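Message: I would love a firmer grasp of how sequence relates to backbone shape in proteins. Thank you; the sequence and its tokens follow:
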Amino acid sequence: MKSVDVVSKAWTDTYEEIAAKAQRVREVLEQRSVKLRSGSALSQLLSQADRLSRAWADQVKPDDRVVWEAAYVNRLADAVTNLPDEQGIQEALNRMAGGVMQPDDRSDSHQGKDALWELVLLSDLKKRGFTARAAEPDIQVDFGMGDYPIACKKIWSENGVRKRVSHAAKQLAPFNNGGVIALNLDELVPVGKVLSVPTKAHAKAVLGMFNLDFIERHRSALQNAVMDGKCDGLLISTTAFAVLWEEETSAYIVSQSSMWHLEDSSQEARQRFLAFGHTQGM
């Protein structure tokens, strides 16, 4: 069995740049005829970037929630603005515009954040130079072996892991049981939890352990999916807010992803999965 940490990112753009990117998100939605209602969850979230920029310009200390949510606006904006003309994401954008988007809101309206996870991963693949598109099961990426399917799932509770993995496996079934299940664990991070550590490296290590602990708790469900040939392996990703004491920019959004598969799965599955791992910097 193998788990390899492969991706760590932090968003550190200036507050003015984040506000500009929030406006670009509004423009992309308008261009694609996605209705962004005033007062909607997404509209309120985007407004936090404007509030943070004004507070910085006026040299007024912003509320911690403003800083926290504006950082997530940056993450959302990076995904949306990197896919302005992408075919196949219209439904995802509509789900985001009509769903709960605040990072600490754990209500039952999941569709908006589910859609964001798909767009974040799709955007990341395209930024790395791979041919990728939104398509069944959620994403198809070509890294030299033809279209390779990725089923994206957010984990909303510890009790729902097996069901979410099973659902993802069913999505992959039409693709000759190849592909990857990409799980996002952001909603398992305790509400209001902030990583208070010296450096980015420490933050990455904490999230890496968070991913590994999740794998150990749910090893049976993950292992069965691979051993039964329902997927080649899994991508596990967590994003959290961090305050870094020793960094010049102390407020960070840090994301850590881990690749996991079984050494004794089929040779074809291992080859496909390791090739996919290269798309993630493995």
